Amino acid sequence: MTTAGIDFLLLAGKEDIYYLSGFYGSRALALVTVDSAFLCVDFRYTEQAENQASACELVGSPGVLCSRLKDQLAAAKTNKVHFDPNGMSYLGYAELVEALPGCEVLPAEQMIRRLRAVKDSSEIALIAQAQQLAEASYTKVIASAQCGRTERALAADMDCAMLQDGADKPAFDTIVAAGARSSMPHASAGDDLICQDDCIVIDWGARRKHYNSDTTRTVFYGNPDPRLNEVYDIVLQAQMMALEAARPGMLCCELDDIARTYIESRGYGDCFGHGLGHGVGLEVHEAPIVNPASREVLEPGMVVTVEPGIYLPGVGGVRIEDLVLITENGIRNLTGLSKDRIIM
Amino acid sequence: MTTAGIDFLLLAGKEDIYYLSGFYGSRALALVTVDSAFLCVDFRYTEQAENQASACELVGSPGVLCSRLKDQLAAAKTNKVHFDPNGMSYLGYAELVEALPGCEVLPAEQMIRRLRAVKDSSEIALIAQAQQLAEASYTKVIASAQCGRTERALAADMDCAMLQDGADKPAFDTIVAAGARSSMPHASAGDDLICQDDCIVIDWGARRKHYNSDTTRTVFYGNPDPRLNEVYDIVLQAQMMALEAARPGMLCCELDDIARTYIESRGYGDCFGHGLGHGVGLEVHEAPIVNPASREVLEPGMVVTVEPGIYLPGVGGVRIEDLVLITENGIRNLTGLSKDRIIM
Predict the structure, then answer these.
(1) Interface test with B, best of A186, A192, A210 (most B CBs within 10 A)
(2) How do strand B199-204 and strand B215-220 relate by DSSP bridges?
(3) Do A153 and A80 share a domain, yes or no?
(4) Single pTM value for the model
């Protein structure tokens, strides 16, 4: 804050607030100054915040928070207030502007997002635990998966396995996309039956003590369209090349480019329309973003997905996603599941 | 839009966009004009949007959407663009302002939120289905619940029962708060054990085809602090009085006042710090809000919770919540579960 010339920083992102204070709730507002921290939660969370965020002074409403802020602004002889835009809704912003007449309410850089991108050992341990919960669910469910069940039933089995093994919850809506539906990268699991000769994309994760995992595997039931065999090999090769190359100091766009250039060289560039990956932590999608436009730099302690995919509308798709930790020298792959092509 | 003098309306709320277009995804931007609709999704959702939102013209990036919008603004000889603030992030707003130089980018009323507050018969049917899934899970889990298990294990059992019976997912993080923790209205289920003589607040819901349910029951294991017996009766009486009084045409603050006045008259006014209820539909919390400040009017077709609670820090809490449909004459209670005090 001092470097950025910021004296008063408002935060609304629930993960940002958890990261700094220890309080996790669906709604809160925090004020950080150079030497103090205030946390505003409503009645539903008062007792919880007292327990979790003892380093913060608690206030009961945004109005009270803004009144305290105005006193401090007057004492500091300034009218400038910054907010971290991550997690701030337009309505939240408009309320602040209204509650702080005469003040300049200015967006800062996403400072907490940048801090959160580099994980410490306890955060890495929780992400690894989440990943283990997720892998156990996959192993259990795949062993008993059968044709004739719905995508939704398979997703429910995976979600239940994670929940019963101690996950907070699934990290996101588990994707099970079978047959031609597998060409939709973010298909939600539906009532469609899994059939013989389907290709199935499964993208899932667990959340453990607020930290998430994220993995994708693509499995074949019988013999799907033969193009998908070729596509599987290309996606896997693209991913292996990116995993091999990933190291600290690299621009995220450079990492993306390694997988993308290979997929383009094999003639499927138009079929890989999303980024190669993203940071994972308190949010499933957080910094850094790994896509062709991202100038973010990989650093030791970052946890990112590497997930190339090729999608053929009307035929099916293949995506293979690992979760990796950037280390001093390269990566540590947090994903232990095989990537051999599985034919059920 | 015509009444409000709006020619161009941008939407970012995923539930608002689903409500109008049929497309449901984690991220989208829509533009509605008097005679056309554009939907902007990224590569991950292109094929899905073609299937789900065939009445919209699809565009591939916010830049393209804004370029189309600028053409239309020029043709209409205006520079005014409105957006629905519901679901719009500050960052999304800032991107629009940057992409539309020379335009006035103005917040509208939350128009879609108002439309969504009144449900049609197909929406009511889905909410009722969600409620039935939720009730079945409660009945199943409570029948086999035992002391010595953790809050989290009980919540996982309820979530799994809903998932395996066909819910999309739990409507929100299932709350199971036992013993003194039950005095925290939004406690997350933790690793604490359920013990003899605990009072347990269970607040849960199911989501079915994007529509949610929401219910709370409080059960006793053995004999909790005797004050909680009294509190249970007061909360139940307050709820019954509100359910009895609820009818179309009533202000939401009037409905809140009925329960609140009774709880105050019994000396527990300070222990009921949240609103009496809220609308439920595509979002778990949506219009109308039922609290002391809400001037919204109850209308037939609205679905709201009625959930008074009394919370005694260090002792425990009681909340009883039903989900009800406002009808032409009063209410139809969508909740079938008994509210007798259950002693396990």
Answers:
(1) A186
(2) antiparallel
(3) no
(4) 0.95
